[in-house]
Predict the structure.
Amino acid sequence: MTRNPSLEVIEGLKDGWDEEERDMRLEPLVLPWNYTRATQLVRDALSETRPELFLLLDVDPTSSDHILQVLAANWTDDPAPDQDGAVVHDTIIDREGPVAYRSKLPLDGIWDKLLVERVPCRMGHKAGWGVFNHVYYQAMRTIAQDDLHTRGGAMQLPPLPGQEEGEETEGRPIERQLDEVDMVLQTIRHLYARVEHETADT
């Protein structure tokens, strides 16, 4: 894949982000496609910044939809090597960890917003068995172990036009994807701000 939609979305958000307008600071982190290095970068970032929100992005070239990943599984099994040539087969990620972690994002609320805006989306219950799921699980494990109040989750984006895998897959222009991920972030912020307001009133 010559262009990476998730990378371009991160760069686009960073360039156009207004902290005061959105009432949210953005700290983008570009990860290598590598089991060890990506895991360490995410662990360090979470422990050091202790963010309110963590959203891991990836691309699924076979999907026309945004995929809201519900679960991070404690299992890696992928014949494809990472950037350093590492291949991991039939391996438990953390023998002391649970079988899976569930996303802490308000998935139903995000789903509702995307459907109202006619953005193709669906829930996913398997983030693959490779680097993406591995890093997703390690992130959620860090949040749990460090007792962070971070609301963590993951989302896979569709490919760009011309990068589709499968006859029925439709790519989406980067401008639309940028707007849609921005919408997801703002929806999450709005939903949690409303919950905090209602909690303060009770």
